[in-house]
Amino acid sequence: MIQLQSLDDPEKLRQAFEVFNRLSHTLTESYRELESQVARLNRELAAARSERLKTLTEKEKLANRLQRLLELLPGGVVVVDGEGRIVECNPAAVHLLGEPLVGEDWSGILAARFLPTLDNPHERRLPDGRIVNISARPLGDEPGQILLLTDVSELHALQSLVEQHKRLSAMGEMVASMAHQVRTPLSTAILYASQLGDDRLDSERRRRFSTRVLERLRHLERQVDDMLAYAREGRFVMDPIPVAVFLRRLRRAAEPQFIAAAVRLTVANQCRGASLLGNAEALEGAFLNLLDNALAVLEPGGKVIVQAREDGDRICLSVIDDGPGMDEDTRRRIFEPFFTTRPDGTGLGLAVVASVVRAHGGTVCCHSRPGEGCAFHVYLPRNGGERPLPSGLQLSDEGAQDR
Questions:
Q1: Selecting from 3.30.450.20, 3.30.70.1070, 1.25.40.20, 3.40.190.10, what CATH number does the domain 72-153 have?
Q2: What is the pTM of this model?
């Protein structure tokens, strides 16, 4: 049985009431403080919610604006993830490259929907002839990159037009200074031709005069052809050209001059079955210019090698001689129009070579040192419709054999 403490003592009763009052007051204050904190937290939460909604609304508006901008951009935009797959693109990219794009591997798109690269590593050519500039930027902390595709076909056309006008202007300025180069072989041809009517000429002298007339006329023809080829850069009809057939034609055209000069011509084809996309006549004229240049500096017994080999998605055609070579200052200027080291040269031969090669989407370079011969390397894109074949040393069996 619980024994209750006596509360008859007034002092103890008063103390008990005081303790109760203090506890009650403390509890009341704590409750009020709690209510105040709850109210403050509710206000802060409401403000945060309002701010978040405002931020989300602004972000949504910004996202909509960006999406609209992407849709209206004239350039194609492609987003590639860290594994190289396309995760997003805009309508302009689809218009340039076709569908499907999203989910595809970007390297596969490059290989399947673009032709071999141009001389600019940032530009690719589409099968319909349009030229696309591709620039890439990383996505920041996120793996992957964003690609901007810009159709620069019109810019290239305008640049070609400006360059053509410059070439025509330069040619107009040079016509007067070239008059003596045309007059000299023409006067010589007229002189020899006038002698052919002399009945006193024996057959041997008549044959010799006829040969010299033809030589002078062909020299004039080459000068005119060079000027026309230089003026018409880029305006060629392109067709597939088997490399072996091209080498055979080139050898057949050049060989008589090499035999007459007692210079050995060797043709080696290391890319059997490959073909180029180009204009056979223009390319043949360019390489005949290279061979003529080599022949002009070689003594009897000299050697020239024409070599074809594969270099990735390009074909490298080289003309290599064992002549006297050239110094660095000359080598740097050889492709400049109207620059020549030959007294009877027009300075257009190698400029025509560079012009024709550029028109075919290729590049040309020269390696030479005094006393070590000269090597011209022309890199041209493969014919886009062919599959690469294994390469190996193989001389052309259509007549391109060593002499």
A1: 3.30.450.20
A2: 0.47
